Amino acid sequence: MRIDIITVSPELIQSPFEHSILKRAIQKGLAEVHFHNLRDFANNSYQKIDDYQFGGGAGMVLMIEPIDKCIAQLKAERTYDEVIYMTPDAPILNQKTANTLSLKENILILCGHYKGVDQRVRDHYVTKEISIGDYVLSGGELGAAVLCDSVIRLIPGVLGDETSALTDSFQDGLLAPPVYTRPSEYKGHAVPEILLSGNFPKIDEWRTQKAYERTKNIKPELFDD
Questions:
Q1: Chain mean pLDDT for the chain
Q2: 186 by DSSP, 3-state: which?
Q3: What is the pLDDT at residue 102?
Q4: From its phi and psi, is residue 114 left (phi > 0), alpha (psi between -120 and 50) or beta?
Q5: Residue 185: what pLDDT?
Q6: What is the maximum span of the chain, computed from C-alpha positions, in angstroms?
Q7: Which sign, positive or negative, has the C-alpha torsion 98, 101, 105, 111?
Q8: pLDDT value at position 173?
Q9: Does position 200 have pLDDT exceeding 60, yes or no?
Q10: Burial of 65 per CB tally in 10 Å (0-12, 13-18, 19+)
């Protein structure tokens, strides 16, 4: 998988890809991530990529011209399965979306900034819009990093145990059950006996029940979905 990220501030997003699972995925050649500074496509010596809103109002808007130039250059080199715009006023990222995107080959992500991008970009260039929550950040870079992490970890070979991702929360519409490790007792707090029994059908039954209980208590809306 190749991911290209268009951003006003590459330094804000590069760090997550230099550590842990994302770093290993890149080193293994399972994922490529490339950053493109939007200012490099500005049509002026000051690298200005934003301007005031037509009609007045507070906040600057990313201009269409540098975005068009950047996307056009990238599209001349390859075909993208999705051109994604990170913005708070969009459908919220969920596991189903991450699963779907993990099957793509080339993804282009545009990070919003300031008051966002010229609406014509959204109307004519973007194929999917994604938010990571109903709140506003300074830019789309952190959201793009979250999206990439959720997608890249699903690529076969990225995780040491490929079945691990299949048992994560939300994969089956439920939250994951509680997990425990050694020691089996600590300061009077014991691990549930069923997990030490070796009776795996009963353990699976216990985990399913706990997953339902946790989902009902913490995210009952998942049952509605």
A1: 94
A2: strand
A3: 97
A4: left
A5: 97
A6: 70
A7: negative
A8: 83
A9: yes
A10: middle
Which residues, listed in sequence order, are joined to residue 185 by a DSSP beta bridge?
Answer: 190
200 Cβ neighbours under 8 A, 6+ residues apart: none
Residue whose token pair is 């999917």: 128
3-state secondary structure 93-116: CCHHHHHHHCCCCEEEEEECECCC
Domains of the chain and any CATH numbers: 2-152 (3.40.1280.10), 169-224 (1.10.1270.20)
As separate numbers, helices (DSSP H) first and strands (DSSP E) second, the chain gives 7, 9
Query: 92: helix, coil or strand?
Result: strand
Residue 9 Cα to chain centre, angstroms:
18
* Token couple for 205: 């039954």
26-35 tens-digit pLDDT: 999 999 999 9
Which candidate, 144, 108, 129, places its Cα nearest to that of 10? 144
CA atoms within 13 A on the CB side of 103: 5
The whole-angstrom separation of Cα 6 and Cα 9 is 9
Tell me what the mean pLDDT of segment 100-128 comes to: 97
